[in-house]
Amino acid sequence: MTALLFGSISTLADTSEIQRDSFNQAFKEHGLDWDWDQQEYAGLLGSNGGQDRVAAYAEARGETVDAAAVHATKSRIYQETLRSSTITARDGVAETFRAAKEQGLKVGLVTTTSADNLAALSDALGDTVPFDQFDVVVDQSKVAARKPDAEAYTFALQQLGEDASDVVAIEDNLGGVQSAKAAGVKVVAFPNGNTTGQDFGDTRRVDSVDLADLRQ
């Protein structure tokens, strides 16, 4: 193992409920009578990409909605909330990050969310998970296809100069797991509060991360 790749934002800090609440606030701002409770939201997380999720939901209801505008509002609210909240890293994340750097591993963050969302999370986590120490950061501006497409991971591997067989990824949702596997990267599922019910098949699941365990 020569590199460790964290997947979506919620592999670092579980912001999934902040995400859901931000969607609901955005719906109100746009005059929509939608309200995603936790069960419904969890059921919608089988696909990646919030804008696409809003568009698909509107289509299923036979409604016409400016999904891009709704998602932009959601993103603004989400970023504002992150920066005004006390955010903590998930169990073992900060320790694993430090240990990986100390042991000479390359560490990356491989998402298909926006750079603005990552900046807000970086501000919220501060020195707990120092983003300036990532060896590669992938966001939606750097790839053409969202997860579960493999592009985000193949791009990260190219930037790091690493072979997929020497890398381990940590992902919190099924689309992310599929993306890593499509790129040939070994992956561990680390579900968040809203993806814990997803079926990860034969992918190993963990409730916390530990570098020694990930090396196995």
Automatic annotation (TrEMBL):
<dbReference type="InterPro" id="IPR006439">
    <property type="entry name" value="HAD-SF_hydro_IA"/>
</dbReference>
<dbReference type="GO" id="GO:0016787">
    <property type="term" value="F:hydrolase activity"/>
</dbReference>
<dbReference type="InterPro" id="IPR041492">
    <property type="entry name" value="HAD_2"/>
</dbReference>
<dbReference type="Pfam" id="PF13419">
    <property type="entry name" value="HAD_2"/>
</dbReference>
<keyword id="KW-0378">Hydrolase</keyword>
<dbReference type="InterPro" id="IPR023214">
    <property type="entry name" value="HAD_sf"/>
</dbReference>
<dbReference type="InterPro" id="IPR036412">
    <property type="entry name" value="HAD-like_sf"/>
</dbReference>
<dbReference type="InterPro" id="IPR023198">
    <property type="entry name" value="PGP-like_dom2"/>
</dbReference>
<dbReference type="InterPro" id="IPR044999">
    <property type="entry name" value="CbbY-like"/>
</dbReference>
<protein>
    <submittedName>
        <fullName>HAD family hydrolase</fullName>
    </submittedName>
</protein>
